[in-house]
Amino acid sequence: MRRVLAAAGGVGIGVVVALACPGSSEHVADGAGPAASDAGVLSTFVSHAQRGEVAPPDLDDVEHMCALLTSCDRLPIPPNLVPSDFKDCVKHFAEEMTSFAAVNFSLTMRECGLQSNSCAALRQCALRGAATDACAGRGKSGVVGLCDVDGRAITCWHEQPLAVRDCQRGGEQCIVSGGDARCTLGPCPATIRDGDKPQCSASGTHKLQCEKGKLASLDCAAFGLKCTVGSDGAAGCATSGPSCTTNAKRCEGSTAVGCINGHEVRVDCGGAGLGCPSAPGATSVGACVAAPPPLGACDPNDKPRCDGASIKYCYAGRSRSYFCKALGFNRCENGKSGVHCAQ
Is 116 helix (H, G, I), strand (E, B) or coil? Predict the structure, then answer.
């Protein structure tokens, strides 16, 4: 089970965590595929990002995603990226997707996690077309990487995929170096050396960096962003919004305005039922705040519990209940790794 992998991974799993984290040089493969639908229509997330906006998901949708992430086994997603307890997962991802940095949030999590309706659908989406048995016979004693025939970089552990990056979708090629499979554009040019700060491509769409002699890239355009060089001389993905200074924040009604890589990001707090100004007793949720809880509210520090097939927990001072059978699970389970749904 996925929860067992998280407990047993140790250093080996830690190596692959960067492969799917926002900001990783390998994140191009994570983001390049699902940015647009088959009909060529941009996803809502990308179209908002192109306008410098973040539209936080509803809490119900985050619960839906976390029910799958904490309960499904054999997911090709590094388990250290996902809190194993349902309540912790909801809090973690609700805050991440409501932050200014959400413009760089993992598209695998957003497009697969939020939109899948079953373990099988989530597993298939995150595989990016790779074969389910691609890791058969591999990684029995540690984490290993491989390139499949279609150019995907696959990380295996205990004969299961832990991460899949579709290199060709980002215009890259897959290589295996030191047992690690990664996506690269080829050898680093003379103008970009190991240890140099990231640079922008001539097109302004990619962040480029030399890693162990190979040129890695992050496709900012896949997130609806552009590559820009900050005051420190390092390139990063940013919106097309007005220029700003680091840590600058303000409120415009129910919209929180912040700064990422030198350009403004606007978080629509009101659209998620949240507010911007920090009122006394309000609970921070990313760049936004939840309204002060009513008198006699639940304690956010209380541990979640099972009530039949439902998970009961406290979020921002309000009692919540998630019914596991809504996604086909049979019960709620309180195990060593926390409370989650189970078959």
Answer: coil
What are the backbone angles phi and psi of residue 260, rounded to the nearest 5°? -130, 120
Reported pTM? 0.85
Element containing residue 209 per DSSP (H, E): strand 206-211
Q: Delimit the domains of the chain by residue range.
A: 2-238, 250-289, 305-342
The residue to which tokens 């999590």 are assigned: 109
Q: What local confidence, expressed as pLDDT, does residue 107 receive?
A: 84
Kindly tell me if the per-residue pLDDT of 25 is higher than 70.
no
- The set of residues, in sequence order, having a beta carbon less than 8 Å from that of 141 and lying 6+ positions away, is none
Q: Find residue 54's DSSP bridge partners.
A: 267
Task: Indicate the SS3 state at residue 47.
Answer: helix
For residue 65, pLDDT beyond 70: yes
Q: Which helix (H) or strand (E) holds 325?
A: none
pLDDT exceeds 60 at position 319:
yes
The residues, ordered by sequence, that sit 6+ positions from 124 with a Cβ below 8 Å of its Cβ are none
Read off the pLDDT band of 41 (50, 70, 90).
low
Q: Mind giving me the DSSP string for 150-188?
A: T-EEEEEETTEEEEEEEGGGGT-EEEEETTEEEEE-SBP
147 has a pLDDT exceeding 90 = yes
Cβ-Cβ contacts under 8 Å for 108 (sequence gap 6 or more): 20, 30, 31, 34, 77, 125, 126
Partnered with residue 210 across adjacent β-strands are 215
